[in-house]
Request: fold
Amino acid sequence: MNKEKFMPIPPGAIIPGSMPQFEIYVLSTQGNFVLWALKGKEVTPEQLGKLTESGPREVFISLAEEFKYEQYLEGHLGKILENHALSDDQKGEIFSRVSTNVLKEAFENAFGLGIMSEDAFERTQVMVRNALCYVAESGSLQALAKMIGHDYQTYTHATKVLWLTVAFLRENVHILETIEPSYKSADEDRKMEILKQCGVAALLHDIGKASIAPEILNKVDPLSSGEWEDIKRHPVNGVSMLLDTDVPSFVKRAVLHHHEDFHGGGYPMGLEGSNISILARVLRIIDVFDAMTSRRPYKAPISPGKAVKIMVGTPPDTKKEESGPDRKNQDLGMRRCFDEGLLRKFILFLGNARLTD
Reply:
């Protein structure tokens, strides 16, 4: 068999008692792929135990069945993230892969339609529930740190914004009490639901970009005035896509406001200060941090430490641009964009989580 037709997967991604709809192989000492588990057959704990004892660090699937493997990961994500046989890094990679696929499909299905399907929305809700459990693990943020600097795409970016937002709010419960006043007196199930909905806002904050042509989103050269106006409509597009869903109003406001600047000059409404919802102010900070520390079509990533220095810096006096911003040079001093109190808390969070090294 040709080795190039196979891809490695961690054995810990296979849940005992499950019935994967793909065949699983191991690599023999002679370098051949040997069938280990048939598709549709239960994988027993004994099988997995023997596999672990024999020492292979990975098993393999056919590239032709990669889609079935991704469906399996999504359907079993909660149990996979609880599996102690997986390292934090492996869990991080699987979590990122699943959430990115969920968002990618939601964006592609919504492109040009201006709506989010009920199925895509439900998958998003499940994704966030799994994220809450995962972020509760002490090793999850260290796994996230290794993702910083990776390529930026709208859906991979949304995954990291989700991860950071949920972790940050868990460390700053008083912000949750401001987002939803009932949080303080709520029972644990209700508190988890409120945090989950904040995660939904983080994951879907850029869903309105599904209506923007990829060549505009990925353009290397400065945007034209018309292209910039298209970009500036994505918060409105996003909230319109969520109008028929049952997300609470604080989620919709966060999606609508996440590009408003605390000291004015943002879009789409030009709001300032407390007129901007507090969850949107949190997303404004985390959105910018991840964007600057990611590799983008028009610029290389910068270190988390440098990103923080830019975020707290005072911008130079510049004339308002008639066309879109020169995105290669726009990340100068950005203090005016943020709620300073929330920004200080976020920087402290980054330091405690060791994400600024």
